[in-house]
Amino acid sequence: MASTADFKNGLCIEYNNDLYTIVEFQHVKPGKGPAFVRTKLKNLKTGKVVDNTFTAGVKITTARIERRPHQYLYKDDMGYHFMDSNSFEQVTLSENLISAPQLLKDGQDVEVVYHDETETPLNCDLPQFVELSITYTEPGVKGDTATNATKSATLETGAEIQVPLFIDQGETIKVDTRTSSYSERVK
User: Fold this and answer.
1) What predicted TM-score, i.e. pTM, was given to this entire model?
2) Could you write out the three-class secondary structure of the chain?
3) pLDDT higher than threshold 70 for residue 145
4) What is the pLDDT of residues 84-131, one digit of tens each?
5) Considering only Cβ atoms within 10 Å of each terminal Cβ, which end of the chain, N or C, has fewer?
6) How many domains does the chain divide into?
7) Do 101 and 120 belong together in one domain?
8) Domain end (from 86, 105, 125)
């Protein structure tokens, strides 16, 4: 058991018979009335973010989660297959548990979050940036850079993203996995 004084970003709590992680919180002491803590909670199963207010000092139940390194192997009709980097055991996850499944490539290192008591996988987090090569894009027009114009590009995983006009086919780029957007060119 913990109280609202123990809140910190990333803390995993049990709330409404579900697991949530604290995205952000703010302790508020109004001039009149009791203090309270305003929070944004992210559901670990659905990914939905909800706002909630706790009265200061209220007891909450914390949940223990564990992050384990895994390596992506392949995808089939059963789901996405990963191998634990420490025990070499394989686990199959459904697409809704993966943060950006369209950016997964064979051999990609990821972190799978497990609920410590039940040993069930809750979600799979990719690194913040992944390096992928471009398999197809239209050639850019020289001199057409007065604005931040973009064009569509197909990545080696099959995903399509928008890239600047100067990016050519065969180049390797960094992609932000949180937004599935172009970040920079890899030299």
Assistant:
1) 0.74
2) CEEHHHCCCCCEEEECCEEEEEEEEEEECCCCCCCEEEEEEEECCCCCEEEEEEECCCEEEECCEEEEEEEEEEEECCEEEEEECCCCCEEEECHHHECCHHHCCCCCEEEEEEECCCCCEEEEECCCEEEEEEEEECCCCCCCCCCCCEEEEEECCCCEEEEECCCCCCCEEEEECCCCEEEEECC
3) no
4) 999 999 999 988 888 889 999 999 999 998 888 888 888 888 999 999
5) C
6) 3
7) yes
8) 125
Domain boundary among 40, 62, 84: 62
CATH number at residue 151: 2.40.50.140
Instruction: Give the pLDDT confidence of 28-84 residue by residue, as tens digits.
Output: 999 888 999 999 998 887 778 899 999 988 999 998 888 899 999 999 999 999 999
Can you give the CATH number for the domain in which 29 is found? Answer: 2.30.30.30
